[in-house]
Specification:
Elements (H helix, E strand, L loop, with lengths): L21 H7 L4 E6 L3 H4 L2 H11 L3 E6 L7 H13 L4 E4 L5 H8 L15
Parallel strand pairs: 1-2, 1-3
Helix pairs in contact: 1-3, 4-5
Length: 123
């Protein structure tokens, strides 16, 4: 395994209509293209997807989508996300809820030069 360090501070924005600020927040960090990783249909049924996309577009943030978040990350989806992010030259990996954070964080590792070879289930 390649030795590396991973530093992941988390900033969470709470409040009414904060999703409309997503594009501006991402832009302030200097990112211009993101991987948007989300579940299946609830993000679209609730209207959240349209608000986030509108915010990204109004701030000139390009995005690549990867739907299909499921509980307990599967290595195939992680690898798919890694290849997509690398191929599309993604700067940042944004994810919704529905258990996507662990998988999304693993997708960032290859962007930093690490290789994911094997995951094992921790019980």
């Amino acid at each position: 395994m390649t030795n590396f360090e991973f530093y992941s501070p988390t900033k969470i924005y709470f409040g009414l209509n904060r999703e409309t600020e997503v594009g501006a927040i991402i832009k302030q960090y200097g990112f211009h293209k993101i991987l948007l990783h989300y579940g299946k249909s609830s993000i679209k049924k609730t209207g959240l997807y349209d608000k986030v996309i509108a915010s990204l577009k109004s701030n000139n943030i390009e995005y690549v989508e990867l739907a299909g978040v499921e509980p307990n990350p599967k290595i195939d989806m992680v690898r798919t996300g890694c290849e997509l992010a690398k191929g599309e030259k993604v700067c940042y990996n944004a994810q919704g809820t529905e258990g996507g954070r662990p998988r999304a964080e693993m997708m960032v590792f290859p962007l930093q030069g690490a290789k994911i070879k094997k995951l094992r289930k921790v019980e």
